[in-house]
Amino acid sequence: MWLRKGSKFAGLLAAGVAVGALALAGNAASAAQDNIRVKIAPGVPYVDITIGGRTVRIMRNQDTKHRLTNSYTKTSRACPPFCIQPMSPAPGVHMVGELELLDFLKKKVQTGKGVLIDARIPAWHKKGTIPGAVNIPFTLLDKRNPYRDRILMVLGAKKLEDGTWDFGGARELLLFCNGPWCGQSPHAIRNLIAAGYPPEKLHYYRGGMQNWQLLGLTVVKPNIASARR
Amino acid sequence: MSDHDVRKWDLREFLLVVAALLMVALPLRLAAENASPEDARVIALAQAEAAAGADAEELKALTNEVLQSLGAVTGNKAAARRPAQPKAQAGSGPQDYAQLMEALTNLVRKASVQGKSSKEIMALIEEALAEQDQATLDALLKQAGGKVGLRKLLAALVQKAAMQASADDPYVKALQAEGAATRVAGNVAAANSGGERRSIVVQPGDTLSVIALKVYGSVGKWRDIYEANRDKLSNPDLVPAGIRLRLP
User: Fold this and answer.
1) Where in chain B are the domains?
2) Which residues, including other chains, have CB under 8 Å from residue B242's CB and lie 6 or more apart?
3) pLDDT one-digit tens code per residue, B115-168
């Protein structure tokens, strides 16, 4: 699988994204592209993702003079707890950027093979998140949480007779939180690994909401009542 | 636990989660001022029934309705009563699944209106599910797999689990505080509007609460509108007529 290629991972992924993204843009792009000055990448004006019957277009803010004015302009939150994170939260976990995340949404999330997880507590998540993400606060992946096992099962893990887990059918997960100064998704990743989740099925978008917004990418406010749809 | 058991448990869990979800969603919906005529009818009906002291019998009947629907999935009318049937034919279509969900919805809806506690309702459903045979559950699981996505299940679980989680941890407390103070205005689209941004022009006499009620059917959403328009509003009580507000 291309995700397990270790050092070749980045190159393969980049190629995959380029090819995949060109295909995403498709024919509609030729006309629309001319109007889109701030593209995601050359030939990729936007990415449409359809999840649960809803389509969201992910694109960048088209105002070339736009600057962030919200809380993500803060530079100095107290550390601890808001400390700078290492590139890798745990050995064997793949690090990804925005293009790889978009590719993951297209190839894994849309097809049900993967889950994009916003690992922040709801107080953050509800303010705005990446389209297609589900909120699984890192606190719920702690082994003391009685619901942790059920969450793992929904993610595709199977509990065996002897109480151990089979993660063979478990989905690939891509986790993020607020960005380089946020420990919530690294924490979630370590909790998952402690539960036995294979690191090669885990991806970490360190840029998080900080970099996502800095690039003017689409942020959605989760529809809390979406449970009813 | 065998592999088979895991699947069985999965489905029970799934239905319980659906039920839990309904219990959270329905009272909210019933309370909404813009309840549809259908809702109003059901509320009136349920209230009349409750007044007539029909609750215990009514719930029993509704539970049976759920069981009947479960039976319909396998074409086994007496599924509820019969012990394990190793090879029942799953002559099931999506409408059976819809039927079950409707029965489940009705049960939860009426039980909530009658003031049953969540615990009591869950006990009823759990009891009903405990009697199901494996073939019925497997058939249902198969249908449920495609129908109700993983995302909904996860959201429901998270909601359930979050109610239990305590925020005593100082780290979590610090996160809460910073998270609550965080603003994400600007390039934010509503998740349910396909990414398009919506807005409204304030009419004379409108307050944020009135707009929230008009747009979302819930007064409580005023804060979200306020948060989304902090660049225009310095005081949530002062909303000048004629300005255009973003709808989060």
Assistant:
1) 3-164, 191-247
2) B201, B202
3) 666 666 666 666 666 555 555 655 565 555 544 556 766 777 777 666 555 557
